[in-house]
Design goal:
9 helices, 15 strands, single chain, alpha/beta, 337 residues, 6-stranded parallel beta sheet, binds NADP nicotinamide-adenine-dinucleotide phosphate
Length: 337
């Protein structure tokens, strides 16, 4: 039988445990051009919250009563598609269930074991999070040696990688996060030059102190008030990398735009959005560089993994409480050798 977590109703604001329900159904049969996946790890991402609402987006909303959509690390157990043999481990867009039937368009790459790096890292530092940090910072932010890079949600899956890449580029990295413990992790273990607990600090004063030469690149995953305040420290020709806006993801009404946006005009600065998919053709390059930095001891990562599909909803809620460091994922099974 196939264990699933279904979307029972669309959340109002922050998702609640009873927006989901467990189900058990027979395992599906793949048709032509489809594969049957055994899901090994579920990637817990803010994007899932977006797909749970019925707002228009780059993917259709998850249907009510259907299993929750998710990035996964999966193993093909039955294939009706050329080039995707049974046994192959893949990165996929699948669903919160033990087995998923998906078309090959949902298979985002074959996973090859990299010596010394655990399989689950293919879903975090060598997967969506690492690639988002890598291409978002280097291609959109274009940091130069000696510049200051400010990062919001800095202790999360993406942000914890961004600051370290900024340091590798010879920049000053300053992180914003929501607890003193996470600030200490950023500076003591990940090498951030400074970290600010935005929940406790007078943010404007703290930014002045931590970014004495202003901000050249703001890698923003939070939006809202944080973005508004950070804009006031932006340097001439500064770059704001619009990665996400998690402070607004649970809003029930359209939030107001950043009232400080004319800072972009005053500083001849730019703000540019991106999706990691924009760089899909260069994933192998990004992954190779990230893996090299890990092997050289320049890049550290942390994956918070819980076991069992029934844990997926509560693990998702941790994204909004901020009660985690690094990447969240759920383990369902080991691959078969
Ligand atoms: N553009 C793309 O292609 C792309 C791809 C992947 C992810 N993203 C975006 O990148 C961002 C980070 O994703 P992630 O997977 O790495 O998640 P994450 O950073 O691991 O988790 C989210 C973090 O955001 C902070 N947060 C939550 N609610 C907040 C609020 N109301 N105000 C301020 N901070 C809040 C929390 O940390 P604190 O304790 O620091 O508050 C929380 O730990 C998200 O915005 C996501 O949508 C974009």
């Amino acid at each position: 039988m196939n264990q699933q977590v279904l979307l029972r109703r669309r959340p109002e604001g922050v998702p609640a445990a009873d927006d989901f329900e467990m189900a058990e159904r027979p395992v599906g049969k793949p048709g032509p051009g489809e594969v049957l996946l055994k899901n090994l790890y579920l990637s817990i991402d803010p994007a899932i919250r977006g797909w749970m609402s019925d707002a228009k987006s780059y993917l259709p909303p998850i249907e009510l009563g259907a299993p929750v959509r998710s990035g996964t690390l999966s193993q093909i157990v039955e294939s009706h598609a050329d080039d995707w043999p049974a046994g192959q481990i893949v990165q996929a867009l699948a669903t919160w269930e033990s087995f998923s039937v998906v078309p090959t368009e949902n298979l985002h790459g074959k996973v090859r074991a990299i010596e010394g790096i655990p399989l689950h890292a293919m879903l975090s530092v060598l997967g969506g999070n690492g690639l988002t940090a890598y291409f978002g910072l280097l291609e959109v932010g274009q940091p130069r040696e000696g510049e200051t890079v400010l990062v919001s949600a800095a202790a999360g899956g993406v942000g914890s990688i961004v600051g370290q890449i900024a340091r590798i580029q010879g920049c000053r990295a300053v992180g914003l996060t929501g607890s003193d413990e996470k600030c200490a992790w950023l500076t003591d273990e990940l090498g951030y030059d400074a970290a600010i607990n935005y929940k406790r600090a007078d943010l404007k004063a703290a930014l002045k102190e931590s970014c004495p030469k202003g901000v050249d690149v703001f890698f923003d995953s939070v939006g809202g008030d944080l973005l508004n305040t950070a804009l006031t420290r932006l340097n001439r020709k500064g770059r704001v990398v619009l990665c996400g806006a998690i402070s607004q993801i649970n809003a029930t009404e359209l939030p107001p735009g950043p009232s400080n946006y004319l800072q972009l005009l005053a500083k001849s600065a730019r703000m540019e959005g991106f999706t990691t998919l924009d760089f899909a053709r260069r994933y192998d390059e990004g992954r190779a560089q990230l893996a090299q930095w890990i092997r050289e001891g320049k890049l550290r990562y942390r994956d918070e993994i819980v076991e069992g599909i029934d844990q997926a909803p509560s693990h998702l809620l941790r994204l909004f409480s901020g009660d985690h460091r690094g990447k969240l994922m759920v383990k369902l099974a080991d691959p078969e050798v």
